[in-house]
Amino acid sequence: MASTTPLAGQTALVTGASRGIGKAIALHLAQAGAEVVVNYASSSAAAAAVVAEISAAGGKAYAHRANVGNEEEVGGLIKAVLEHSGSIDVLINNAGITRDGLLMRMNTEDWQAVIDLNLSGVFLCTRAVARPMLRQKRGRIVNITSVVGLMGNAGQANYAAAKAGVIGLTRSTAREFASRGITVNAVAPGFIITDMTRDLDLKPILAAIPLARLGSADQVAGAVRFLAADPAAAYITGQVLQVDGGMVMG
Ligand code: NAP
């Protein structure tokens, strides 16, 4: 029978884990036995509440603030986690933002802010964990992309470009790290109920989803937990797992 705590003894770093999908991932990985590092950018009270929820359920977690779009802060985050926990076995690149607008009116700041966090942030965190993971010849990396990176979306050229970039980054890293026992996969949520989707006009969105409803953060976290766990997902790498109610097929 499969273990209910396949991540026991492992440390999992989840970026952007104070709210939404990242919070759900943190709770799921803690339930799977991992010690979880709850990264956040500014919501310190929310991050502390995630840590408290994990501790109350008998799990292990601590919070660490860092802007994962900033090279120096990423370096500080990874160093602190290695000092505190001794290893990073699972990295979930989840932190992300939107700065929507039609391309013709999109200013360079909004383009760059989304690329800096949603794409370069994934690169910076992956590069920073590469050496310790390669040395220990074991690791799981899961990047949170989006179906928008597969299909494009009017008003989200910056976000779609970053998320498509994450898919190319995932596949390239998967090829580079495979021989060292490290898998790298992406999870592509469709429309999920979080702060990010709170103000969307749902009518046209629901019409495009075969399952005719938005997904939950828990449903995304379940897919991430599967990809992070051994031995169930040990032979899966370079893949994009969609959690989108059937919105994008083929
Ligand atoms: P959310 O509710 O807005 O939460 C975003 C999280 O990212 C927060 O924990 C936030 O921390 C953190 N964050 C923001 N900027 C950061 C930075 N510079 N450094 C570190 N952390 C930072 O977002 P979500 O909906 O859960 O989305 C999570 C991921 O799923 C994103 O990559 C998003 O693109 C992707 N996704 C979401 C959907 C959806 O429908 N919601 C669909 C597809 C993909 P603070 O609380 O400190 O600000």
Average of the residue pLDDT scores: 97
Q: Beta fraction of the residues?
A: 15-25%
Category by helix and strand content: alpha/beta
Radius of gyration: 17 Å
- What's the number of structural domains? 1
Helical residue percent band: 40-55%
Number of strands: 7
Domain Ketoreductase: 10-190
InterPro entries: 3oxo_ACP_reduc (IPR011284), KR_dom (IPR057326), NAD(P)-bd_dom_sf (IPR036291), Sc_DH/Rdtase_CS (IPR020904), SDR (IPR050259), SDR_fam (IPR002347)
Catalytic activity: a (3R)-hydroxyacyl-[ACP] + NADP(+) = a 3-oxoacyl-[ACP] + NADPH + H(+)
Family: Belongs to the short-chain dehydrogenases/reductases (SDR) family.
List keywords for this structure.
15% strand; 250 residues; Rossmann fold; seven-stranded parallel β-sheet; 8 helices; alpha/beta; binds NADP nicotinamide-adenine-dinucleotide phosphate; globular
What does this structure look like?
The chain has 250 residues and is of the alpha/beta class. It has a single domain (9-241), classed as Rossmann fold (3-Layer(aba) Sandwich), CATH 3.40.50. It is built from 8 helices and 7 strands, in the order βαβαβαβαβααβααβ. The chain has helices at 20-31, 44-56, 71-85, 108-136, 148-151, 157-177, 202-207, 217-228; strands at 11-14, 35-40, 60-65, 90-93, 139-144, 182-189, 240-243. Strands 3-2-1-4-5-6-7 form a 7-stranded parallel sheet, with helices on both faces. Strand 2, helix 2 (44-56) and strand 3 (60-65) form a beta-alpha-beta unit. Helix 1 packs across helix 8 and helix 4 (108-136) packs parallel to helix 6. It is globular, with a radius of gyration of 17 Å. The model has no long low-confidence stretch (mean pLDDT 97). Bound molecules: NADP nicotinamide-adenine-dinucleotide phosphate. NADP nicotinamide-adenine-dinucleotide phosphate is lined by residues 15-22, 39-43, 46, 67-69, 94-97, 117, 144, 146, 189, 191-192, 194-197. Pathway: Lipid metabolism; fatty acid biosynthesis. It comes from Aphanocapsa feldmannii 277cV. NADP(+) binds at residues 16-19, 67-68, 94, 159-163, 192. Belongs to the short-chain dehydrogenases/reductases (SDR) family. This is 3-oxoacyl-[acyl-carrier-protein] reductase.
